[in-house]
Amino acid sequence: MPRPRRKKSKIYFGTPAQEAIVEYNNSTDPSERSKIYEERIKYPFEKLAENVLNTFKFTYFDVPKKDVQTEVVSTMVEKIHMFQEGKGRAFSYFTIIAKNHLILKNNGNYKRWKQNNLLSQMPETWNPENDFTETEENNEFKEFKQMMLTYWDNNLNSVFTKKRDLQIADAILELFRRSEHIENFNKKHLYLLIREMTDCKTHYITKVVNVMKKHQKKMLNDYLHHGELIVDKKETFWEDDRYIDTDYL
Full-prediction pTM beyond 0.85? Predict the structure, then answer.
């Protein structure tokens, strides 16, 4: 009697995909990592991006859905190293990453659409160059933000040594990078975004924020008094009840 055919699993992002992500992160061989991604991770990522995009019905995208999906997959690949084995399911983690990326992009697109819609309703005599210009303060903020992000790109791994803290700090910096697309800067809302991006409890987030604030205060003081970040000063900061020495840019 012939054996019944085993039904093909409909789960596209289950344990095999999670195990592949762990193997990918543990491997240091570029060829092996490429093979793992192409054969075991690429399809789950693409399917997840497609499903999140279809489920939440984001409407303010003016490019083909396939392009948006590709961008979401790229974001998940950029964050793949932050997934920690034993800290929840990979499916939930990358669903949050995909959803938050689409929310930020959708909000930014909506904001631009709203501005363009308002511009189209303005009288012809209205001069946007005179009536709607960036202030010097905004330009200074953009300059300082770029300096600050460069500092953290070079020093993040020396300030934070725990993978959890690095994950939280990276999420905070991601919000800075996308600040022009965030409309609600309420503290609780930002904490909620970070919690969804990292799956970490609030008290861990607060600890990382407090460490980063000490660095931010020093950087801002240098910028306001010197117009740049001082490179030859060394400061000592608390983290995990011990001292961490970090050199400034």
Answer: no
